[in-house]
Amino acid sequence: MRVLLLSDTHIPRRARDLPESVWTEVDRADAVVHAGDWCDAESLDRLAARARRLVAVYGNNDGPELRARLPEIARATLGGVRFAVVHETGATRGREKRCERRFGDSDVLVFGHSHIPWDTSTPSGLRLLNPGSPTDRRRQPHHTFMTLEAADGEVREVRLHELP
């Protein structure tokens, strides 16, 4: 199962739309995971209409309309892999221990907020993935998103994609 990981799209504040290469990945993906900070409901509607399956949460920049439609935490099993999705995980220091306590029943935690790509594992094996942002790189050298393959209960081939 091919999974596209997105976060912090901030449309229309930081971009008018997702980059075309991200839409191409939406079309290729079996599931899209979005870790919040959409900023408008139209972005949610467009992605939901085009994605085969969407697993999504709201972020700190999402207003009442998005918060009414999306959970703070989402969980899904994709390719036999147990995913949890949340926007914020707190400070970098102590992140692995905090996330392990809170999401230890998952195999992968997808999060956002910082716009900084992140790929680590906790001592128990929980994989922490932040895809960065495809539209608002902040202090990062590139706009980014991630893809991964999930099959037979295993995560395979996590890839960070850098956009020009």
TrEMBL record:
InterPro entries (UniProt xref): Calcineurin-like_PHP_lpxH, Metallo-depent_PP-like, Phosphodiesterase_MJ0936/Vps29
One of the record's GO molecular function terms: hydrolase activity
Pfam family, one: Metallophos_2
Cofactors, names only: a divalent metal cation
Protein origin, superkingdom: Bacteria
Residue ranges of every copy of the Calcineurin-like phosphoesterase domain listed in the record: 1-152
Keywords: Metal-binding
The protein's Enzyme Commission number: 3.1.4.-
Similarity section: Belongs to the metallophosphoesterase superfamily. YfcE family.
Protein name according to UniProt: Phosphoesterase
Source species: Nocardiopsis aegyptia
Lineage, highest ranks first: Bacteria, Bacillati, Actinomycetota, Actinomycetes, Streptosporangiales
